[in-house]
Amino acid sequence: MSKQLNFxxxxxxxKQFFRAHLSYLxxxxxxxxxxxxxxxxxxxxxxxxIPLARRRKVDFLKFLKxx
Length: 67
Prior knowledge:
Strand order of the largest sheet: 3-4-5
Number of helices: 2
Order of helices and strands: HEEEEEH
Structural class: alpha+beta
Largest sheet: 3 strands, antiparallel
Number of domains: 1
Strand content: 25-35%
Distance between the termini: 31 Å
Shape: globular
Low-confidence stretches: none
């Protein structure tokens, strides 16, 4: 892509998408769970895991609870 992730982050609904890491935006509808060992990772419904920045963990947990 020729656009930076910030471009898409601003376009997408912040109640539906979360910037989990420098290179990842996560759609709330596809989050299955969070792995904490050996590192923070988000597990998606399609069995893919992506990193979750340590400094964004608390915000991510709050994001999941907001409906």
